[in-house]
């Protein structure tokens, strides 16, 4: 990946002329750019200014530099990330980047001390240690974990800093971070790609089930059903694109697959009565993919469907989440013989073999990007069924149920926030959730049939569960999706968890 870089002087112009930041008691943002300069005198002057009234909330702005000064070409006197317009500074794709450079031992832990980049990195680390009293050295993960565990008290211009800092990778990043922020900006991280750098599927070509010879029965698909129309999205295809704009059952949807946190969630693309296009921002929050809309350039959480940074943040807007199921191609095709499925003819040259994309990531319990907190009741990437409902007073009631537990309890009832729920799990492990107010289900009598405590038989489908003797008593299916435990917990640390 060879990003085009913007001159630091241009990047800083909007900041230094902004009267809001000029009146702030915080140091001028230009010092946080000049602090990484290859010009020793300029850098030391900037660091001295930053340190005069230091607060630990400034640390994340210097820590940002450490990731980019670990390898590649030198930096310019003005504090640019690279010295040349097309320099390769060692930035790869999202799949190649690790969050940790790892602590290096000995006096030469930073590498060749004659390299301006190495000198700048050593200078930054030395001053970080002096300002904070911490001793993480060259351990990037250590610095990040420490900074994100602090009470949130950032520089007033942190958003402007991030916009201009990441604009040196792609100028389009400057469109973000304007307006409200409903999340900690120090936990918003670059994911290793440019804006829209992971190509979305735009109303992709589909084929009938009988023509999908490239799929084996055991291949994982995300099954979606809307207004009588069934469609399968193979994981092996979606993992390369992470986003699909599509129309199913006459409704425009945005299907976002966050490979890092293991969630495939379909949302209605309609916001405020109009269809809105969402795309990959190249940014993450708590290892969760952030989308942006092409109207206001607000950043949206792909996990919650809420706008989190930008003009729409704090407005109460939320995308409508729709039901989906993670299952096998053989099971989905058997249940929906008339389904369509994505064609391999996507217009992109990728190896769409089963298990190819993110193979190393999925095979390990290690994370690619750090999160603020984890919970050891399950392994990081153990799969859970995620269910959430908005509370009237704000926030969500959240529930995680172990996928392994549900595989052993294929008829399971529980409640969340006063709502009674039925979870049905198929023989291939597909989970579907239905509202079940006032009904106690006691027995499965078929793959799609259950009996209640009064002896009535109910039939479950993609839309609802219905008693055979009274179609008017149908109970609706509810939105739920699979997720990796660490990603769900990072977003909902107060979640309920059912494992046994």
Write up this protein.
With 500 residues, this protein is an alpha+beta fold. The protein folds into three domains: 8-175, no CATH class; 201-363, no CATH class; 383-498, Rieske Iron-sulfur Protein (3-layer Sandwich). It is 22% helix and 27% strand. It contains 13 helices and 29 strands. It has an eight-stranded antiparallel β-sheet with strand order 20-21-22-27-26-25-24-23. The longest helix has 17 residues, at 116-132.
Topology:
Elements: H1 8-16, H2 19-22, H3 30-34, H4 40-52, H5 59-68, H6 116-132, H7 140-148, H8 158-166, E1 180-181, E2 188-190, E3 201-202, E4 206-208, E5 220-226, E6 229-234, H9 235-241, E7 243-248, E8 251-258, E9 263-268, E10 270-271, E11 274-275, E12 278-285, E13 288-293, E14 299-301, E15 307-310, E16 325-328, H10 329-335, E17 340-342, H11 359-363, E18 383-390, E19 396-402, H12 403-408, E20 411-416, E21 419-425, E22 431-435, E23 441-446, E24 449-452, E25 457-460, E26 464-467, E27 475-478, E28 481-484, H13 485-491, E29 496-498
Parallel strand pairs: 3-7, 6-17, 19-29
Antiparallel strand pairs: 1-15, 2-12, 4-17, 5-6, 5-16, 7-8, 8-9, 10-11, 12-13, 13-14, 14-15, 18-19, 18-28, 20-21, 21-22, 22-27, 23-24, 24-25, 25-26, 26-27
Helix pairs in contact: 4-6, 5-6, 5-7
